[in-house]
Each structure stands twice: as structure tokens, then as C-alpha cells.
Specification:
This protein is α+β, with helices and mostly antiparallel strands and 184 residues long. The protein has 10 helices and 5 strands. It has helices spanning 3-13, 15-23, 31-38, 42-55, 74-87, 98-107, 109-120, 125-132, 136-148, 168-183, and strands at 29-30, 58-63, 66-71, 152-157, 160-165. The strands form 2 sheets. Strands 1-3-2 form a 3-stranded antiparallel β-sheet. Strand 4 and strand 5 form a beta hairpin. The chain is elongated and about 65 Å long.
Amino acid sequence: MDGKEERLARALSAQSRRTILRLLINRELTVTRIAEAVHSSVSLTSRHLTFLADTGLVIVRKKTPHKHYSLRSKKVADLLQDYDTIHRHKLFKNSQKGEENLARILNAAQRRTALRLLAEEEMTVTELAKLTRSSMSLASRHLKLAHDLGFLKIRKAAQFKYYSLAIEPLKELIINYDLVLNEL
């Protein structure tokens, strides 16, 4: 995977950065206002904002004496909405870690690739390993984790297990993830 995709995954992997991004939906804020809203130091918030700006998710407008931050595009807001939709999905209602688990699944490049493929059609471990150019063992571990966390379902047919997305909003999230990635 390219560096843009890894930076995007890293930016979205931290709850604090997702919180900051959500604050910027439909408004522009200074670092001081953001730090107050997230109950963090200005220094730490500034580091997060610098990373988000370097990644391309936020834009900075300098208006002396402050810098004003806003989302780069509506697509970033749509992606965050997808995170929220999945977190509220009935499969995750009793889990406080739904969003963290989603970030964990999306953090690994090979899992993102597997999810993209499974958004198109169900597949066996063998098919997925071949398409992702990974070992059966590694593909199996990625699938097991995604299944155990509730993101994949399994259909058994004879000696084969077919994996597919367990929740429809995940497909929309993958589409929006790629739209944001293409903007960076």
C-alpha cells in the first residue's frame, strides 16, 4: 500500500483524532477551542491537528493571531458518519468498543484489501490469499479477527467456508474510505 493510505489509516486509528475531525464537521475552529472541547492540552491537540493537516484531512487557514482548522471535504464527514452508523449497528449495541474495533480492522493494509474484495463478493480463504498475494495462514488470521469482532459472516458449503461482510454499512464505509483516499 502507498504512504497516503497508511497515513489515512493511522489518522483514523486514534479516537482522539476522530473526535477532532467530528468537531470540524460544518465549522472552523482554532486549536484552543478544539483543545477545550476534547479536554486536552493545546500542545497535544496541536500535534494531532498538524498530523491531520499533513495527512490532508484538514485544512489550515491562518488569520492572525490564530490558525483556523476545518475539514478538507464533505467526504471526510461522510466517512465519519459511516463510523458512527457502524458503531450504532445492532451487532455492536452492547459493545463500547465497536468503533475502536472498526479502527483496528481498518488499520492493517491487508485487512482493508480483504474488506474491499469481500464488499464485492463472498470468498474463501484460498481465494482471498491468492488475490491479496498473502499466505493462507495470514489471510486466515485476518479473516478470523474480522469475524471474531463481528464484521464478517461465514457461510459453510461442504468443506469450504465462504466469508462476506456481516453488515451492509461496512460496504458504504469502504467506498467512502476510498473516496477520501483519492482526494489526498
